[in-house]
Specification:
The protein is of the alpha/beta class. It contains eight helices and eight strands, in the order H-H-E-H-E-H-E-H-E-H-E-H-H-E-E-E. Strands 3-2-1-4-5-8-6-7 form an eight-stranded mixed β-sheet. Strand 6 and strand 7 form a beta hairpin. It is globular, with a radius of gyration of 17 Å.
């Protein structure tokens, strides 16, 4: 609510780190290159999960029309924009003013109407915002309190709606590939992008979602195929993975 502050799971050091790259969000060969390459697989997963939940045809170009979606931790908007093109009514939220400015500028350049806000999940939840789909993509591993963050996100999911999260598992394999490999050897990401001890296991994330009143309905790993030079869905959740959970709709309850 206006004029009132709310406890936040935002890690200020993480915000400052990502804010330094605000001008590079839309450079496919810049510091966010790995995220650009990862974008198609997560976009397809979100589209298909939303289409299945809301009885839409995922092959239609406007299959998300009329669905109100929140992209929490939206950065420069590289996920919010393609979802808008599929018809979704997007709210993109990020605690970094610099990231929001970059997102707004790019959306204006390409002629897309997206409601970008420099705010947090906690503030949005306190304002009683509600969405058909809440997205927390590559965000959970950057917050200070996973349970509190997930609870705020879950509060905003309408009955019958979805929360979809993508993050990194806390395993030795993820340390070797996501930090040593991606940040130091291949240099796909700036060094220091991730902290292994903040990675979240699927069980931890599932428990947080269920404690917040959601029911986990699906989970998929995501792996990099070096031969095809692309990311693809997999049963291997040792490193990257995505979870989808739904808020049950009580009998007679409106969505």
């Amino acid at each position: 609510m206006a004029g009132k502050t709310h406890a936040s799971s935002v890690d200020q050091a993480e915000i400052e780190r990502f804010s330094r790259h605000a001008a590079d969000w839309w450079d496919p060969r810049g510091p966010m290159a790995a995220l650009h390459k990862f974008n198609p697989i997560r976009l397809g997963y979100i589209r298909d999960q939303a289409a299945a939940c809301f009885n839409r045809d995922p092959k239609k170009l406007d299959c998300l029309k009329g669905l109100r979606m929140l992209d929490i931790g939206c950065g420069g908007g590289i996920l919010s924009e393609p979802l808008t093109r599929l018809g979704a009514e997007m709210v993109g939220a990020d605690p970094s003013e610099d990231n929001i400015s970059a997102a707004q500028a790019h959306a204006q350049t390409v002629g897309l109407a997206i409601d970008y806000r420099a705010t947090t999940a906690e503030e949005l939840a306190a304002d009683q915002e509600r969405f058909d789909v809440v997205l927390a993509m590559e965000v959970v591993e950057h917050v200070t309190d996973v349970r509190a963050f997930v609870a705020s996100c879950a509060t905003m999911v309408k009955p019958g709606g979805l929360m979809i999260a993508a993050t990194l598992n806390r395993t030795l394999k993820s340390f070797a590939l996501a930090i040593v490999g991606a940040e130091y050897v291949l240099r796909w990401l700036p060094r220091g992008t991730h902290q292994w001890d903040k990675f979240v296991t699927p069980v931890e994330l599932e428990n947080a979602m269920e404690r917040a009143g959601l029911q986990v309905t699906g989970e998929r790993g995501v792996i990099y195929n070096p031969f095809a030079d692309r990311w693809q869905l997999s049963s291997d959740m040792d490193v990257n993975y995505m979870l989808v959970a739904q808020r049950p709709k009580k009998e007679g309850e409106a969505t």
